[in-house]
Polyamine oxidase 5 (Sesamum latifolium), 239 residues
Amino acid sequence: MVSKKPRIVIIGAGMAGLTAANKLYTSPNSKQAFELSVVEGGRRIGGRICSSEFCGDRIETGATWIHGIEGSPVYKIAQETSSLHSDQPWECMDGIPEHPVTVAEGGHELNPSLVEPISKLFKNLMDFIQGNAIDSDGFAAEILEHCARSCGPGNLSVGSFLRKGLEAYCGVVDDQKGFKGVGNWSRKSLQEAVFAMHESTQRTFTSADDLCTLDYNAEREYIMFPGEDYHSQRLLERD
């Protein structure tokens, strides 16, 4: 008796769906291992990549940004095809402040001594999730080990791991003397707010409404290219 092959259905024929389909279809023995289908609700494939005609020129109306240019194959293709509108980045054109100011609701400017440890904690946690080298010290290593132990195996999300890291951090610093709070903000609420600020930024990178919907193990499969975070491109632009 021939066993029935599992069927994989990919919802959406945007770049993510097509890339996943290509990865599965080109894997060894894929035709014998499973059936593969791609379902698209729209009238075309490509998702946000959408080209159209305007005044006799072919323009790109969808994917017009390159996120990270150092080592990016998309940026290389755009250079080789002269598709860049400008060699200058369009976002953060004036650079990023070397010493950013963080202000809590009520107009309270936060001391870097409170903000920087939380920012470093978030970066270390994300680096750990993504399999990158971390800016580690004894304290950071202790937090990461605690997270790994408390989360355990199973269906772990990026969001839950990050929150475990914050809980472990707050559990340690609560025993230390120092800054207590400002205005109606306690130290813990400020720490949580700064952490949430970084979570919100991370959501913009991943286009995820909730980081708890992102698989912990799959996060290492994604690469965020360094360099300018946003670089404008206009495909097939003519003079």
